[in-house]
Amino acid sequence: MTAVRTAGEDVGAAANGGGAVGSHPVGRRRKRRLTSVTPWLFLAPALLLFVVFKYVPMAEGVRLSLFQVRPFLGDLFVGLDNYVRILGDDRFQAAIGRTFLLAAGQTLGSMLIGFALALLLEGHARSLWFVRSAVFLPVVAATAVIGEIWRLLYYPAPEGFVNTVLSFVGLGPVAFLDSPDSALWSVMAVGIWKGAPYDMVLILAGLAGIDRQQYEAAEIDGASTWHRIRYVTLPALRPVVTILLTLAAIRGLRTFTEVYVLTGGGPAGSTDVWMTRVFSVAFERNELGIASAGSVLLFLITFALTVTVQLYRRRKA
Asked: A GO CC term (predicted)?
């Protein structure tokens, strides 16, 4: 009897154990499901705010670009007429040309200076961390504040800082922001000064990933500094340069705050670029539909540029 009872108990225990084992996969699935959902629950508030304040206004801008906006009278659907009107506007066409010139100059200048700074500040010395942080300050500073500081530096009177230095060497004073011949170049210099540190950081990250043995092999072969940069550094940095080219070009195309603070699009429209023209059409002429069409066109250009670069990278990969 004892043996039978013990065997029965063993069988019952085995059955209970078997049931417990059988329930484990269900518990694991629930835990796995909860683990996968939890991060999204934490991200949900931020994602909701991002959608509300980013994508909803974008969708509204696309909608407005197809309408003649008439407050209190109701919007009138005009289709693509706003796009035709803004592309046929002489002032907007001139602004497009200045925008591409500004973007090209800022992109080339910031990448070259960023590359030079990265080569100078590459290394692991403790002192370099402080210098890198100091150089990076223009990136984290508010663009409006930077524009106001440079407006004071460019002050046209001989007492202005830059003109004081130029006068000291016999080259000043120069009407940086008050002359149609120099205003756009002065704004471009500010954009380069602000964008170069950002490019420097990305290039530094690319330099850190280059195998040091390649430099050692090139040095053993008698390669000069220029040849090491040309045949080792630049080919290794090609993916980084491709990304930088895209980001810097988009940054240049979307330039607004520097121009608005420094010159407001003047003098005589010499610094009136894409975004300042859109701003003027929207808030000075109160033609929100046409201004929205201009914004959508800029988005399409930046989107096409991004897709083109990504396709190029995949083809070269």
From this structure: plasma membrane
| CA dist., res. 66 & res. 150, Å (int) | 39
Structure tokens at 228: 């090491």
Do 202 and 245 meet the contact criterion of CB atoms below 8 Å apart? no
Say if CB 77 and CB 67 are below 8 A apart: yes
Q: What share of the chain is helix, strand, coil (3-state, %, to 5)?
A: 75, 0, 20
- CATH among 3.65.10.10, 1.10.3720.10, 2.60.40.1180, 1.25.40.390 for 85-316: 1.10.3720.10
pLDDT in tens, 36-94: 788 888 889 999 998 899 899 999 999 999 999 888 888 889 999 999 999 999 999 99
Burial category of 5 from C-beta neighbours within 10 Å (exposed 0-12, middle 13-18, buried 19 and up): exposed
